[in-house]
Write a structure and sequence with these properties.
53% of the residues lie in helices and 0% in strands. It has four helices and no strands. It starts with 7 loop residues before the first helix and ends in a 5-residue tail after the last helix. The relative contact order is 0.08. The mean pLDDT is 76.
């Protein structure tokens, strides 16, 4: 195995950090929380009878096995 020599100039190279504003960060965090809340509702709370879609159980049946896999009871 050969050892490659690294010059001191290459060793001190820094990573570029993107310039992200506070408004962009707040928008991304808000969107993340909204998506997480929707995912939690559909996976953990939507039972068909208390669905925001009325008595329609299509969403419940579509994610039925995912609910059991994640440990949410539904029966």
């Amino acid at each position: 195995m050969t050892v490659s020599a690294v010059s001191p100039k290459d060793a001190t190279r820094a990573l570029a950090v993107p310039d992200v504003s506070a408004a962009t960060t707040a928008l991304v965090l808000t969107a993340t929380v909204l998506v997480a809340a929707l995912a939690y509702y559909f996976l953990g709370y939507d039972q068909g009878a208390v669905s925001i879609f009325g008595d329609d159980t299509h969403v419940h049946e579509f994610i039925h096995d995912s609910r059991h896999f994640l440990g949410f009871p539904c029966h």
